[in-house]
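re: ur question from earlier - yeah i can do the single chain one, its not a big deal. heres the input i used so u can compare w yours
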Amino acid sequence: MLEAAGSSPATLTIFLGGEKLPIFIFLEVLFLTEKILHVVRPAQGGMLKHLETLFQGMGKEYHLYLAAPPSCDSYLLRAAAQKRYLLPLDESLHPLENWRLACSLAQFISQEKIDLVHTHGIRAGIVGQAAALIAGCGKVVATMHNMINYGMMPFSKVFQTMHGILMRRTVHTLITVSEAIKKEVIKYRLFPPEMVTVIYNGVDVNLFSKQSCLDRKISFNGPVIGTVARLEPAKGIKYLLDAAAIIDKEYPWVYFVIVGDGPQRNFLQQYAAGLGIDKRVFFLGFRDDVPNILPLFDIAVIPSVQEGLSIFCLEALAAGCPVVASDVGGLTEIIIPCKNGLLVPPKDPRALADALVTLLKNRTFAVALARQGRKMVEQKFTYEKMLERTMKIYAQLLQPE
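and the output i got, formated as tokens:
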């Protein structure tokens, strides 16, 4: 049913599924034909934010579908996804379970007539790429968000070989979020180098500005050193706590804020208590309002042992925070030492403590680093650049044959 809405000028509306939609939105949805399915493992932190950015930015261009486990939940994803397929992926790599999941997902791909499958990460990549192959969907893009750890897997050489064969058979373009990950792909001979494209993670710089914290329940009477991370070994939070204990001996008025959750949370809280710094370290748990928390931080720290490309590092720089980060992975592609931040060796609490104290003592230097850091993000790491380059790959693949 059509009707005129408003007074001047009149806007035609249509009732669809019990909802009233402006006619131009209805027509826009009607003529969208390409269906893109994103396949993802349990995701938090950077990977989840990456997906949210894609879904927000591409919702008007494509029909977006999501295959993900129940734990990968987000209002932004739910709002933008045309349909969601619950895929019970976990961290295991059992071949028979992978095959069962791939066959089930292949049915969904066929039923929904999916035009392009985009997988995220290794486990989701195996299942999603196999499902696309079974369903006859020949247009597949894969994104690798993290460094490769084949050495930690059982039968790593066999797994590496099989993974490479599957990718070469199905994937048209492999996206890595940093040059460091691309080097890993080439090192393991996982995929032809000429078919690997680096597309950096991007953030909306306008969301981050050094204003007063909007959460009035949180306040400190001294400098705050903070981080946002999933609490797992790769993020190196243990070494941050060791550095905090060193700093606390000379500067007992400094506070440490750790935002995030994960399998190591209880261990890290107990570890902080064992170091005698539990009154100086605050675990805030998972927060979905990082832009409101960042103004708390006088210094942002990323003590990772390994890192693909830290979205939190980009957010901190965009918010005007000076950054101290580990000299690993994609962090070296963001931080230029003594220009827009400081880099320290990983797993070195003393070096980390010294760098943090340097910025605590020299606020003029810290502010100069932060200013250059924000400029770097504005020039190189915006979500617009990330979306533009990803959509260009989609457009090339979806051209009529």
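The two ends are 37 Å apart (CA to CA). not sure if urs matches, ping me
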